[in-house]
């Protein structure tokens, strides 16, 4: 029977869920879901000085917005300190760890001397093989006994086989002198106890893997499958910073990117499936594998994110898109539309979603529905409402009172009106856009008039005539 796949995302709650962490979570989620396995969430909150409940909640909210659901309860690493401590003591009993009484001053003196002599500055403790009868009554740390010869080989699904000489690895501390476990120990114990089969994380943790493998081997535990993924860089090839897009995922949410578009784009950052750029969650789960992972850092590109997001908005079912749009309006503090406006939004969705790359752009196009009378034109639109244009609208009004109110008939009526007056249609469309939406860039005037209905259209034209 094949072992069930178990992956995990294990962020430190010291800030928001940034884009690199979100992609790591996504890859773990895709791999687990694609193999019918479990995706677990562990909060690595052992750094009590920097860990905050607010940051923990921001991570949970960020994952929820991205749609990355986890299995089981959230695990707190800090709450498991007793278990971590017990494992360190077990290694001590087995002779795979030792007590070290060296002080910080002694360690520094060793390193200074080694540096002066051109030797490795990795600390070699004099207590590694000391007789317990020589132990002083002083504080001590517990260190792992790392093999002194040979190599540690990380069989990595992305990086290939990575070999590190054991003489490059120190006898790392497992328990501090106050009895608290270190992060490196806690990670291994938690991954083992949670049944994690695949550790998928950034390649900045690659060296950690070599040190953590020593704990697995000391305890006789099976190693997980490692996959260390390249980091994300900015478009200029430099380490990702805020100016490149290293923001919290909630900021992308507030910029109006749909979660489906964000998942699609993040999946393509460092992973590919042939030439496919646009795909669904189901396809991503089916296709995702380590074979498609690159070894080089990927580059964050806002234009490509916008393009993929626009494709997801265009492909969305009307009801689902309306639901997500209303959620976006609520979470960003915008007024809740009336039932009448929601009904109009639903009818208008096919024309609103065309070429919209974000929910913000979609809302801009929907301004003719969302705005309340009297419509207040913005600066660009107001320029179309001069005395001549207002006269044209006043002359047009009687023609609309008796026109057939379907889109084709309205298009014929307006074109005939412009042609009879030897006007270019733009001379009529500009003032109509300003009157109906208060904007100069809108859906077609025919679509807006048809959706608003005869009564509302005439009332809006009456409003602007009153401003003359």
From TrEMBL:
Q: Which InterPro entries match?
A: aa-tRNA-synth_I_cd-bd, aa-tRNA-synth_I_codon-bd_sub2, aa-tRNA-synth_I_CS, aa_tRNA-synth_I_cd-bd_sf, Glu-tRNA-ligase_bac/mito, Glu/Gln-tRNA-synth, Glu/Gln-tRNA-synth_Ib_cat-dom, GluQ/Sye
Q: Which GO terms describe its biological process?
A: glutamyl-tRNA aminoacylation
- Return the broad EC class: ligase
- Domain of life where this protein originates: Bacteria
Chief localisation class: cytoplasm
EC number of the protein: 6.1.1.17
Q: Which residues form the Glutamyl/glutaminyl-tRNA synthetase class Ib catalytic domain?
A: 4-306
Q: Which residues bind ATP?
A: 242
Q: Which UniProt keywords apply?
A: Aminoacyl-tRNA synthetase, ATP-binding, Cytoplasm, Ligase, Nucleotide-binding, Protein biosynthesis
- List the catalytic activities from the record: tRNA(Glu) + L-glutamate + ATP = L-glutamyl-tRNA(Glu) + AMP + diphosphate
- Gene3D superfamilies in the cross-refs: 1.10.10.350, HUPs (3.40.50.620)
- Residue ranges for motif 'KMSKS' region? 239-243
Q: Which intervals of this chain are the motif 'HIGH' region?
A: 11-21
SUPFAM superfamilies under this entry? An anticodon-binding domain of class I aminoacyl-tRNA synthetases, Nucleotidylyl transferase
Q: Where in the numbering of this chain does the Aminoacyl-tRNA synthetase class I anticodon-binding domain appear?
A: 329-463
Coiled-coil-forming residues are: none
User: Which locations, inside or outside the cell, does it occupy?
Assistant: Cytoplasm
> Would you name any one GO CC term?
cytosol
Which GO terms of the molecular function aspect are on file? ATP binding; glutamate-tRNA ligase activity; tRNA binding; zinc ion binding
Protein task: Catalyzes the attachment of glutamate to tRNA(Glu) in a two-step reaction: glutamate is first activated by ATP to form Glu-AMP and then transferred to the acceptor end of tRNA(Glu).
Q: Which family does it belong to?
A: Belongs to the class-I aminoacyl-tRNA synthetase family. Glutamate--tRNA ligase type 1 subfamily.
Please describe the quaternary structure of this protein: Monomer.
Q: Extract the NCBIfam families matched here.
A: gltX_bact
Descriptive protein name: Glutamate--tRNA ligase
User: Could you read off the lineage of the organism from its UniProt record?
Assistant: Bacteria, Pseudomonadati, Pseudomonadota, Alphaproteobacteria, Rhodobacterales
User: Which gene produces this protein?
Assistant: gltX
């Amino acid at each position: 029977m094949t072992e069930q796949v178990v992956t995990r995302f294990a962020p430190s709650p010291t800030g928001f869920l940034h884009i690199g962490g979100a992609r790591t979570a996504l890859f773990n989620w895709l791999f687990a879901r694609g193999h019918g396995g479990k995706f677990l969430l562990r909060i690595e909150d052992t750094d009590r000085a920097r860990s905050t409940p607010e940051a923990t909640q921001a991570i949970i909210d960020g994952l929820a917005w991205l749609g990355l659901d986890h299995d089981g309860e959230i695990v707190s690493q800090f709450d498991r300190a007793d278990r971590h401590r017990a494992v360190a003591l077990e290694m001590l009993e087995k002779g795979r760890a030792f007590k070290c009484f060296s002080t910080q001053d002694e360690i520094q003196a060793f390193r200074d001397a080694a540096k002066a002599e051109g030797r490795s500055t990795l600390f070699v403790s004099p207590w590694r093989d000391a007789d317990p009868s020589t132990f002083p009554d002083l504080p001590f740390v517990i260190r792992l006994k790392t093999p002194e010869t040979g190599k540690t080989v990380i069989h990595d699904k992305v990086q290939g086989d990575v070999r590190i000489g054991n003489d490059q690895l120190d006898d790392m501390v497992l328990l501090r002198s106050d009895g608290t476990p270190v992060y490196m120990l806690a990670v291994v114990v938690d991954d083992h106890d949670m049944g994690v089969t695949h550790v998928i994380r950034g390649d900045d943790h690659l060296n950690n893997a070599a040190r953590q493998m020593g704990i697995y081997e000391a305890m006789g535990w099976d190693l997980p499958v490692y996959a260390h993924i390249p980091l994300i860089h900015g478009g200029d090839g430099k380490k990702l910073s805020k100016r490149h897009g290293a923001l919290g995922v909630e900021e992308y949410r507030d910029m109006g990117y749909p979660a489906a578009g964000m998942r699609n784009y993040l999946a393509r950052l460092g992973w590919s499936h042939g030439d496919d750029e646009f795909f669904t969650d189901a396809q991503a789960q089916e296709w995702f594998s380590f074979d498609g992972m690159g070894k080089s850092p990927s580059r964050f590109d806002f234009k490509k994110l916008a393009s993929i997001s626009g494709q997801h908005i265009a492909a969305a079912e009307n009801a689902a898109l309306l639901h997500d749009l209303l959620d976006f309006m609520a979470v960003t503090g915008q007024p809740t539309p009336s039932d009448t406006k929601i009904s109009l939004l639903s009818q208008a969705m096919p024309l609103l979603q065309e070429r919209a790359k974000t929910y913000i752009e979609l809302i801009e196009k929907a301004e003719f529905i969302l705005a309340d009378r009297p419509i207040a034109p913005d600066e660009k639109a107001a320029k179309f409402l001069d005395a001549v244009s207002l006269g044209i609208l006043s002359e047009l009004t009687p023609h609309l009172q008796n026109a057939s109110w379907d889109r084709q008939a309205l298009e014929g009526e307006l074109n005939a009106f412009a042609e009879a007056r030897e006007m270019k249609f733009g001379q009529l469309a500009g003032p109509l856009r300003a009157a109906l939406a208060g904007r100069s860039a809108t859906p077609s005037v025919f679509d807006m008039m048809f959706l608003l209905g005869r009564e509302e259209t005439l009332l809006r034209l009456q409003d602007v005539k009153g401003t003359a």
